[in-house]
């Protein structure tokens, strides 16, 4: 396994993902991890990440000395290379010239990291992002690659297996980045290709059986990717000791509740209790138009319904949650982006104190793409694994203002038509999230010889990677036309359809 020490680069998480994609388990910790913890981790190799600081500044972060004394290979990336140089007796200089973006590096000396890896003879197209650079090699090192503006773009000491690269192999703009990372973890660190979905599942099943033994486990199943994969995994590990509670709040998409029951209860034979709470949620939401208050009401009702169902069950010791690794890293990030204090991230927070469970979080160290691969390997359908995200408050934040059943029913039908057409045209997978929004305003239309005075539906589709920023999807006009015609023709309560052309920021993805 590979240890990644994080100096706060925006790309640090990517390093961990790339290493795992190469089939090797990796974990990321803050750069100031204690010597004991580093030894206890027993890494086969260590990667030092990039970071925003300058090694030339007094008191800037350094790798613990034990990193260079363990006798395992070390790869320093950007800041990681610079601190390696400083700590081993080389030197780094701040320069006014900053290099960002694409660059070609030339191999000077084909060391074990680079040998045979090239885009053109002796040339690599890489992604640079740095101000400082190494200007003096530490004792025992050689230059392995250079660019005109950065003569020491990569360095190595093959005797000790220390490697430094000024560029970022973890970003896809470095064309051979994957090959370089694979070379480091397999060729240099000697790690096997063991981190595969099949292997992860076997490992998890074994760990879950050991942790849970004969006890009972409760899982809040939402039908989203993470809780679905947890359900499938736990079912495989402990069978009937698992009970799922699925809260149908009446704010789900068309037929969603039935589909969840069919897949998990009927097809997979998992015990799922469906709490039909539509009326209860609608009653609690009646008369409330404020978005934040609506969210709170929905959250509170969810906890109450879930708690009531949980109390009906006897002798449950564990609560399972679909926490994933980015949740863990994010809730631990401090101002340096350090994975410092690992706090537990509670998806089902706010349960009453007397309902105390131990937590089971089998996806806690996995990235979303790993969770998806696990789900596929466990036999969950593609349509569920690659589903767009759906917010906890559901249609509650897609019906503007007061929520009414009438509105929810109209919205569900419109949204379903939108999704059918996106899937049929191949646009579902090209957008990150798409949905319809109910506008509680009436607009005039004409149908045949008659006047129609009915509701407005907005269509929202976005492209985004991180959901922090998003661009409205440039759906083809023909497709938008088909969708809008179908919605107005098939749903007589709708007289107008509009397409949302706002990007985030300044708009958010959801309308409330
Ligand atoms: P916004 O609207 O903030 O949405 O641009 C970003 C992403 O977060 C989802 N979202 C939520 N998810 N509970 C959730 O579980 C919420 O209250 C919530 N609000 C927004 C939204 O669907 C989008 O993917």
From TrEMBL:
Cellular compartments per GO CC: cytosol
Gene3D superfamilies: 3.30.300.10, 3.40.50.880, HUPs
Nucleotide-binding as UniProt keyword: yes
PROSITE patterns for this protein: GATASE_TYPE_1 (PS51273), GMPS_ATP_PPASE (PS51553)
Listed EC numbers: 6.3.5.2
Reaction catalyzed: XMP + L-glutamine + ATP + H2O = GMP + L-glutamate + AMP + diphosphate + 2 H(+)
Domain GMPS ATP-PPase: 195-387
Top class in the EC scheme: ligase
Keyword set, alphabetical order: ATP-binding, Glutamine amidotransferase, GMP biosynthesis, Ligase, Nucleotide-binding, Purine biosynthesis
Pathway recorded for this protein: Purine metabolism; GMP biosynthesis; GMP from XMP (L-Gln route): step 1/1
Active site: residue positions: 78 (nucleophile), 168, 170
Binding-site positions, ATP: 222-228
HAMAP family: GMP_synthase
Quaternary context: Homodimer.
Descriptive protein name: GMP synthase [glutamine-hydrolyzing]
Recorded name of the encoding gene: guaA
């Amino acid at each position: 396994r590979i240890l990644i020490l994080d100096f706060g680069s925006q790309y640090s998480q990517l390093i961990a993902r790339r290493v795992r994609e190469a089939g090797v388990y990796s974990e990321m910790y803050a750069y100031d991890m204690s010597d004991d913890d580093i030894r206890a981790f027993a890494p086969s190799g260590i990667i030092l990440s990039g970071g925003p600081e300058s090694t030339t500044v007094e008191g800037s972060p350094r790798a613990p000395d034990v990193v260079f004394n363990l006798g395992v290979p070390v790869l320093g990336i950007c800041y990681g290379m610079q601190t390696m140089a400083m700590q081993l007796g080389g030197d780094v200089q701040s320069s006014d010239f900053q290099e960002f973006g694409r660059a070609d590096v030339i191999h000077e000396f084909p060391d074990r990291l680079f040998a045979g890896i090239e885009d053109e003879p002796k040339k690599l197209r890489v992604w640079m992002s740095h101000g400082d650079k190494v200007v003096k090699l530490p004792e025992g090192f050689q230059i392995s690659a250079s660019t005109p503006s950065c003569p020491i773009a990569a360095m190595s000491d093959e005797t000790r297996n220390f490697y430094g690269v000024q560029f970022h192999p973890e970003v896809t703009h470095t064309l051979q980045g994957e090959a370089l990372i694979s070379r480091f973890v397999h060729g240099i660190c000697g790690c096997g290709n063991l981190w595969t979905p099949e292997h992860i599942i076997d490992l998890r099943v074994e760990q879950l059986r050991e942790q849970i033994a004969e006890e009972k486990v409760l899982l809040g199943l939402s039908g989203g990717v993470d809780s679905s994969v947890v359900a499938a995994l736990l079912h495989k590990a402990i069978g009937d000791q698992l009970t799922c509670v699925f809260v149908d709040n009446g704010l789900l998409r068309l037929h969603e509740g039935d589909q969840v029951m069919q897949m998990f209860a009927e097809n997979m034979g998992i015990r799922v209790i469906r709490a039909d709470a539509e009326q209860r949620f609608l009653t609690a939401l009646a008369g409330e138009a404020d978005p934040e208050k609506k969210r709170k009401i929905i959250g509170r009702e969810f906890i109450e319904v879930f708690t009531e169902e949980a109390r009906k069950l006897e002798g449950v010791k564990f609560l399972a949650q679909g926490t994933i690794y980015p949740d863990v890293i994010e809730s631990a990030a401090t101002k340096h982006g350090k994975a410092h204090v690992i706090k537990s991230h509670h998806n089902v927070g706010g349960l009453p104190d007397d309902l105390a469970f131990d937590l089971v979080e089998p996806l806690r160290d996995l990235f979303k793409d790993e969770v998806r691969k696990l789900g596929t390997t466990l036999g969950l359908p593609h349509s569920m694994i690659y589903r767009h995200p759906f917010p906890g408050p559901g249609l509650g934040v897609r019906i503007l203002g007061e929520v009414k059943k009438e509105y929810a029913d109209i919205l569900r039908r419109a949204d379903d038509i939108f999704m059918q057409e996106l899937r049929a045209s191949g646009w579902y997978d090209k957008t990150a999230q798409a949905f319809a929004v109910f506008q509680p305003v009436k607009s005039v239309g004409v149908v045949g010889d008659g006047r129609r005075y009915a509701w407005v539906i907005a269509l929202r589709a976005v492209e985004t990677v991180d959901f922090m920023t998003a661009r409205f999807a440039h759906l083809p006009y023909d497709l938008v036309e088909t969708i809008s015609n179908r919605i107005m023709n098939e749903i007589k309560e709708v007289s107008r359809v509009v397409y949302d052309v706002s990007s985030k920021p300044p708009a958010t993805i959801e309308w409330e």
